[in-house]
Amino acid sequence: MMPSRPLRLAAATLLAAAGALVTAPAHAAGVDQVCAGTEVTTFDPPLTLTARPTTVTVSGIYTTCTNPDAVTATYAETFTLTASCLVLFDSGSAFRTFTWGGTTAPSDFRYNVTSSAVAGQVVVVNTGVITAGGFAPAGAEQVITLVTPNVLQCLAGGVASVTGPTTLTVHGA
């Protein structure tokens, strides 16, 4: 006899909770660095419903990183693209430098950008390679989650900035 749906759901929830209690060590095999922090993205001019050339300034801070030689990090980047409240980011390739708090040299990160709308959020995934500096050569992935701009703000003067959590994973050799 098959358990009832509520019972199966409860069992699945318990299994998921138990799995969440098991965490990987800070330096799991193949991972040199994992960081968590916040990104602020500003738009000039502010985003409206009309697509137009926009200067985008990104600044991020990782307040928690797992590598003892690089315990925090910051980054900043400015670029221009055609954007609106309906289309925040586009796909493409870019470059940024992570500056580490600790003894590790800054890392040059060359990456490809993809973005998608998921449940009222814009999820930006930067996948690429640390080409020079600390952790080089290594693959890396940065994920940024930003709230989709409020349509009312887009109509009334525009959206000047969005903020959201970001993670960075650097994969060792």
From TrEMBL:
The keyword Signal applies. Residues 1-28 form the signal peptide. Keywords: Signal. It comes from the Bacteria. This is Secreted protein. The lineage of its organism: Bacteria, Bacillati, Actinomycetota, Actinomycetes, Pseudonocardiales.
